[in-house]
Amino acid sequence: MKNIAIFVSGSGTNCENLIRHFEHSEVARCVLVVSNRADAYALVRAERLGVPTAIVPKADLANAELVLPLLRSHGVEFVVLAGFLPLIPSYLIDAFPRRIINLHPALLPKFGGKGMWGHHVHEAVKAAGEKETGMTVHYVSPVCDGGEIIAQYRVALSPDDTVDDIAEKEHCLEMTYFPQVVEQVVGER
User: Fold this and answer.
1) CA 47 to CA 54: how far, in whole Å?
2) SS3 per residue for 108-124
3) In terms of C-beta density within 10 A (0-12 exposed, 13-18 middle, 19 or more buried), how is residue 108 classed?
4) pLDDT at position 92, please?
5) How far apart are CA 126 and CA 146, in angstroms?
6) pLDDT tens for each residue of 145-164
7) What pLDDT is recorded for position 189?
8) Distance CA 53, CA 105 (A)
9) Nearest-CA neighbor of 6 among 50, 38, 52?
10) Nearest 5°: CA angle at 76, between 75 and 79?
């Protein structure tokens, strides 16, 4: 049984989905939820589901002597980013090689990089007139959204789709496939 920490910045729908998925897994369990924001609703979701939480403000994320002991104290072996916005520092990537997994709400390499998160991505997809969108699960590297792609799932778009329609279609993919991909990766390591 592997121990997973989920890093979040926002409301936490994917965080809750992951916690619930791994409640019944024989491969892994969620042992910690870390947020850079004290007001992230994901922390409430985690606490309601009995998962310990920690707040690590963006400025403290650069401090290996603070973050690594926190993760070690919970026996964390994998880190899953579920809407975590700060860039992951190199020391953390070095400490968890090919064991930090991120979800991106587009088909990378398109619509990735700095500033490309949440609605910004969906707005860019709409503005580009894309015929499809999707989600990408990838390993975290020092380059923002530049890590090796693990899996991608696609959904067709209509010219009539609004930005909110695009976001909803993509979010449905996340809720269906993200926990499955994480479990597969963790199970293979």
Assistant:
1) 10
2) CCCCCCCCCCCHHHHHH
3) buried
4) 97
5) 22
6) 999 999 999 999 999 999 99
7) 82
8) 25
9) 52
10) 175
Q: In one letter, which amino acid is 105?
A: P
Closest CA relative to residue 38, chosen from 53, 22, 18: 53
Query: Among all residues, which ones are annotated catalytic?
Result: 104
Rg of the chain in Å (alpha carbons): 16
Q: Options 3.40.50.170, 3.40.50.2000, 3.40.50.410, 3.10.120.10; which CATH number does 2-103+137-152+174-188 get?
A: 3.40.50.170
Residue ranges, the chain, pLDDT below 50: none
Please report the DSSP string for the chain in residue order: -EEEEEEESS--HHHHHHHHHHTT-SSEEEEEEEES-TT-HHHHHHHHTT--EEE--HHHHT-HHHHHHHHHHTT--EEEESS--SPPPHHHHHHSTT-EEEEESS-TTTT-STT--THHHHHHHHHTT-SEEEEEEEE--SSTT-SPEEEEEEEE--TT--HHHHHHHHHHHHHHHHHHHHHHHHHH-
Strands 28-35 and 149-156: unpaired
**Beta strand pairing status for 100-104 and 132-139?**
antiparallel
- How is the chain split into domains, by residue range? 2-103+137-152+174-188
